Structure formats: C-alpha cells, structure tokens
C-alpha cells in the first residue's frame, strides 16, 4: 500500500456558494414558531412535485418526513430514478451534487449549503489532479464522498456498499488509485487482495472511535455484536463482527434476531432506523477518543426541519454544477450505477 503524507489543507467546496446563503440564519429566526413545519413541507412537496431524499445520518424528524431514506448508493439510485421535478436532498453537498450530475434538468435543493464533508473538503480537485500525475495508466476509483470536480477526474465512482465488489470486477493486472478515504481503501484492499495507491483522506466522525475503549466495551458486553462502517480505522475494523455501509449495517441488525445487543461504530443517526427495526434490541455507541459526543456528523446535522421548509418555500439554496464538469463527472457515476446492478448491498466481513 502506498500513501501520501503531505499535510492537506481543509477546504470547503461550498465556499463559493456561501455568499447567497448568509441570510439563512436570519430566515430561520424570522419563521413563525407556531408554523406546523411537517404539514407545510408535505403541502410544498405536493405543490412542487418534489421528492425528499434523506441520508441515515439526518435527524430523526427529517428521516420520518422523507420519501426515501438510504445510504449513499441507495440515494444516488433514487435520484437517478425519480420523475419528480425537484429533488430536496437532506444530506451533504456531494450527495446533492451527485443528484444534480444525474438529473441536470431538475431543481436540486440542499437545506444548508455549508453541509460539506471532511473527506470531500480535504481532497481539492487541483491538488488531487496534480497527485494523480504521479500515477499514469492507473484506473482512478473515487469514493462518492468527493466533489463533482474530483469525480470528473475519476474513472469509476464507488460507495461503501459497492467499493469492494466494483474493484473485484477489474482485471487483476489493472493498477488502481483510490481516493479519498484511506480507511475504506485499506478495507477494500483486504477484501479484494488488491494493492492500491491511497489518497490519505479520512472522515472526522468515523476516525474518532477509540479502538482501546472499544476493546473495553466489548469485554463488558461479550454477547454484543460489533458492527462498523468501513470508514473506521483498521484497529476498530479488526474487532468488528460485521463491516458494511449504513444500509448494510441496518440490514444486519434486522436479519440477526438472535442478537439482542449491538455496538455500533458509525454516525448515531442510523440508530433511529435500527431501533425501529429492532425495538427489542439494545444499541451501544462505539466510544470516541475524547469525551465529546462526536459520533454525530457536524455537517449532516446542519440540516434541520426549519431549513428544509425554507429551502422548499424559497426554492434555494440550489445546487449547480457547471456543464463541462457535470458531463465528465457523469461518466464515472453512471459506470458505478451500471457496475452495481444486481449487486447485493450487504457485504459480510471476510466475504
Ligand atoms: P454510506 O452512506 O455509503 O454508508 O456512507 C456513509 C457516509 O459517511 C456518508 O457520508
Ligand atoms: Fe463526511 Fe464523515 Fe460526515 Fe459522512 S459522516 S458526511 S464521511 S464527515
């Protein structure tokens, strides 16, 4: 495995858009507190012919209102398939951008444009493009957690639910560059037995789980199943009974009725669906390195019911992608969708 060691400068791909949104907090404060937001959102959805897509890391009230709740792959598939005029994306910027790449003629709204992602922000397209020059002839595989400009530099996009299966479909002699999540990349290497060049990105939420404290919790709850997202560090994944995307983790919980305790190493938003699926089970959060409640994604949680309502009422903030970038980014996204057809989204550790 090769890795890059130079420091990355965090950047936010949404910075250029922020000017138009500096009134968002004012608009939230101006809202009538007696407004029935759920009823208003449902009314607007009908009037606008909109579909609301929500990631599992959104607040429970947003998940409950959404037409589709899913992981990154399921939501990209839903965005590609919808015949709605408006896609309201309750997730982060790269997800809404992917919806726009797939559906350029639809209005795509994101409740808060500052909902970025540490992986996408730490992989700026100019630096990534320079870095790729070291690896001519390599197939460039990128995690969907990347900007449209980085997707445009890629051959194939993957998500956590299809990354290993897609890499496994490439001829064994194909040299591969994988970005921007080093932990997902390392896990795919283990799953497939393929060596890849890894960009050294990471998710600030998944990287903060403490392997040492986790071992202590496991000793305390020896019957509990540890289920983990592949964005976690290797020392956490090595302890896991099952590794998968958020949807795969949810399916695992639903299909293992004999297990009544689960230690969950991913963003806590998924617990809402897990508790609905298994009201009889106990869910314990994987302990973080520090004392904070940092298993909550600070970007995802910028979206609120108030901002969702305002986005629909005011038809902004709108996600735009310049056409030349969009056309180049569409190819690897479409390739992912094509290569994912018929794939089981659930991957058992060691499969
Ligand atoms: P999945 O939706 O593929 O599980 O990825 C989790 C994540 O971190 C999304 O940003
Ligand atoms: Fe990005 Fe991590 Fe938040 Fe997902 S959980 S949006 S990877 S920062």
Question: What would the keywords be for this entry?
Answer:
13 strands, binds iron/sulfur cluster, alpha/beta, 351 residues, disordered N terminus, 14% strand, binds 1,3-dihydroxyacetonephosphate, disordered C terminus, Rossmann fold, globular, 3 domains, five-stranded parallel sheet, four-stranded parallel sheet, 16 helices
Bound molecules: 1,3-dihydroxyacetonephosphate, iron/sulfur cluster
User: Averaged pLDDT, please?
Assistant: 91
Please provide the count of β strands: 13
User: What Rg do the Cα atoms give?
Assistant: 20 Å
Domain unit count:
3
Summarize the structure in short.
The chain is of the alpha/beta class and about 350 residues long. The protein is built from 16 helices and 13 strands. The chain has 3 domains: about 15-120 and about 300-320, Rossmann fold, CATH 3.40.50.10800; about 120-205 and about 325-350, NadA-like (Rossmann fold, 3-Layer(aba) Sandwich), CATH 3.40.50; about 205-285, NadA-like (Rossmann fold, 3-Layer(aba) Sandwich).
């Amino acid at each position: 495995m090769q890795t890059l060691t130079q420091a990355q400068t965090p950047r936010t791909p949404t910075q250029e858009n922020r000017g138009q949104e500096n009134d968002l907090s004012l608009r939230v404060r101006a809202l009538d507190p007696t407004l029935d937001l759920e009823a208003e959102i449902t009314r607007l959805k009908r009037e606008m012919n909109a579909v609301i897509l929500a990631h599992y890391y959104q607040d429970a009230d947003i998940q409950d209102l959404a037409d589709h709740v899913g992981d990154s792959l399921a939501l990209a598939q839903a965005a590609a398939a919808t015949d709605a005029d408006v896609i309201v994306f309750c997730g982060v910027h790269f997800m809404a951008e992917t919806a726009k790449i797939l559906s350029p003629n639809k209005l795509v709204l994101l409740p808060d444009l500052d909902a970025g992602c540490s992986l996408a922000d730490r992989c700026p397209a100019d630096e990534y493009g320079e870095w790729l020059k070291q690896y001519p002839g390599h197939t460039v595989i990128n995690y969907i957690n990347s900007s449209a400009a980085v997707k445009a530099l890629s051959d194939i996009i993957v998500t956590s639910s299809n990354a290993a299966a897609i890499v496994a479909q490439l001829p064994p002699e194909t040299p591969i560059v994988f970005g921007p999540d080093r932990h997902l990349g390392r896990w795919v290497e283990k799953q497939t037995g393929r060596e890849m060049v890894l960009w050294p990105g990471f998710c600030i939420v998944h990287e903060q789980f403490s392997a040492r404290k986790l071992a202590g919790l496991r000793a305390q709850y020896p019957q509990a199943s540890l289920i983990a997202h592949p964005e976690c560090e290797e020392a956490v994944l090595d302890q896991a009974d099952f590794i998968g995307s958020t949807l795969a983790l949810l399916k695992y919980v639903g299909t293992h009725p004999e297990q009544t305790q689960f230690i969950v190493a991913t963003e806590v938003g998924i617990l809402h669906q897990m508790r609905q699926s298994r009201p009889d089970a106990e869910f314990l959060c994987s302990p973080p390195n520090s004392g904070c409640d940092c298993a909550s994604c600070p970007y995802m949680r910028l979206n609120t019911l108030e901002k969702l309502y305002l986005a629909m009422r005011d038809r902004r903030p709108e996600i735009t992608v310049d056409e030349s970038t969009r056309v180049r980014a569409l190819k690897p996204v479409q390739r992912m969708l094509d290569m994912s057809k018929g794939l089981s989204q659930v991957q058992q550790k060691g499969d």
